[in-house]
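BUG-370 | component: ligand-complex export | severity: low

The export step for uridine-5'-diphosphate-glucuronic acid jobs runs without errors, but we want the raw record kept on the ticket for reference. Input record follows.
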Amino acid sequence: MRLVIVGCGGFIGSHLLDRLLQDDTISIDGWDPQTGKIARHLSNPRLRLRRSALTSSRDLADFRRAARTADAVINLAAICNPSEYNLNPIATIHSNFLEPLRIVDICAAQRVWLIHFSTSEVYGRTIASYAGDADYSDPALYELDEDATPLIMGPIRNQRWSYASAKQLMERYIFAQHKQAGLPFTIVRPLNFLGPRMDYIPGYDGQGVPRVLACFMTALLSDQPMRLVDGGTAQRTFVSIYDAVDALERMIRNRDRAANQIFNIGNRHNEVSMRELAELMREAYAACTGDPSYNSHPITFVTSRDFYGEGYEDCDRRMPNVEKAHELLGWRASMPLREMLFETVRHYYFQYRDWPDAPQQARLEDVTGV
Ligand code: UGA
């Protein structure tokens, strides 16, 4: 099997390579300017990596050639970090609509199967959040179903939705290409994949505000308080990256069942508020450092305006219906939140424990299997 993976050097791509390259019959044409997370694969002859973001016309011609004979093109490349959505909405829209548009057009022209990574944020806020007092008594008001749930974005001035709107339009464009031009597609809506190598530590191996896992890790590693945005009441369901990669592999190996479908990939049994997440993470950190004082590591509160700037609005709750992935792919997530958090916190700790004192960049390949 020959696959093209755009954005193969990020969090999800690195785990996908770990899994797929174990199979000697799979070869991959990859694109990514960042290679720190996939260092261990760079010498593999079955990975042909271009250290580029697929922006120049030369890159696109090369991509077109590689796509023509591929069994599938997987597009993972995107800005997907909420701190960027309202601070840098133009780049966010470019990255999530205009740049992938070229990939979709090339796949459509050649009728190559495109597996495109979208987001659970296309659902926006739940119906329950608009129904008076956020009434979650009826699952029909909050459960997210790929083919039935309406997609509800906030007002234009709340630029948090720049990302979700770009992703949603891209989904609609892919579907239009399917209907009008015969593009075979699969859309994946990830619901908070979590695991080692997610994001970065700001000022050390990345810049800006990462997602919540890396924010809380940064606080623990640097003895700063963990900060809860707007009271820490927002809820998320986290799914292990290993479970998620299992779902992706099933899609790749079962085109007849995965093609022309949208899939939620999440774990409805791992729902927590951000406050509960902070408490669990400090417990995990106490366990891996052997220092029980971290069990009461300080937690403080911050407004979303102070934390993210003007224009932030949060998704209230993300409870996926994952029956389609079960029925068509035989997939269910299995790793409980506590287990995945304890493992992930350990990885981060061993990867970054010398920070902020160590001047050199953390070497991700050295912590494999921690
Ligand atoms: C992000 C992306 O926008 C989604 O596309 C993506 O699918 C998702 O991550 C994911 O990882 O799958 P979100 O869950 O809002 O969505 O990202 P986070 O930055 O991790 O925020 C989660 C919650 O934690 C939010 O309520 C945020 O306000 C809160 N938070 C974040 C804190 O309370 N403290 C922090 O230090 C950071």
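Assignee comment: Attached the raw record above. Confidence is low (pLDDT under 50) at residues 359-370.
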